[in-house]
Amino acid sequence: MLEILYQDQYIIAINKPSGLLVHKSFYARDAKVYAIQELRNQIGQHVYPIHRLDRKTSGVLLFALDTAVLKIMNDRFATREVEKKYLAILRGWSPQEQTIDYDLTNDDNITQNAITYFHRLQNAEIELKLNNKPTSRYCLVEAIPETGRMHQLRKHFKHIFHPILGSRPHGCNKQNKLWLENFELKGMMLHAHQLIFNHPINNQQLILNAKVNEEFSKVGTILRLDLSKYQ
């Protein structure tokens, strides 16, 4: 059963679990279950995804309940009238805040402008040895992508040498192996925790929040991060 965050006659939003594809994908032909079919079966009507989340990314995922609303919301995403906020746990201590303006090349070999703003929320350091260092450092950040390129946050954080913990690819293989061996971490520490937009029909502002999942909470406990406002 998918967790429904908001529902009316025009739109519906869920807290997508990590590991669940939004729809069929050439890149994950092994998958048999998709958010579209699960939500359709759960509420008994067709749903139309307005935006996408990576398979390993959890959090707020918005659907339209008819094609007219889908067009309205697609236009608002295209004109950047929707604000998406993500939580991520990164390797190392990132800058306090930064705007990453770094072009990305998609699978069709087309280079696109990509911009991400983020600010650091908390630092962490634990006794976890790697490369002859007795401790390892991490941080919790909130990221707000201004553009919506494929794997944008993963690629941008890797670009500034603070990759997202658990990201494969576009992560740190040594850190991922370390966490898999020590803590059985298989997920990625990226969560779409908030979506802010105006309703497509009445134009009233909506702020939708999604709680972090169990694995994100577990990593937060290991790192002694305060995630109470996100749980």
From TrEMBL:
Domain Pseudouridine synthase RsuA/RluA-like residues, every copy: 11-159
Pfam families: PseudoU_synth_2
Enzyme Commission identifier(s): 5.4.99.26
Reactions catalysed: uridine(65) in tRNA = pseudouridine(65) in tRNA
Keywords: Isomerase, tRNA processing
Highest taxon in the source lineage: Bacteria
Gene3D superfamilies: Pseudouridine synthase
PANTHER family associated with the record: MITOCHONDRIAL RNA PSEUDOURIDINE SYNTHASE (PTHR21600), TRNA PSEUDOURIDINE SYNTHASE C (PTHR21600:SF56)
Function, as annotated: Responsible for synthesis of pseudouridine from uracil-65 in transfer RNAs.
Protein name: tRNA pseudouridine synthase C
Lineage: Bacteria, Pseudomonadati, Bacteroidota, Flavobacteriia, Flavobacteriales
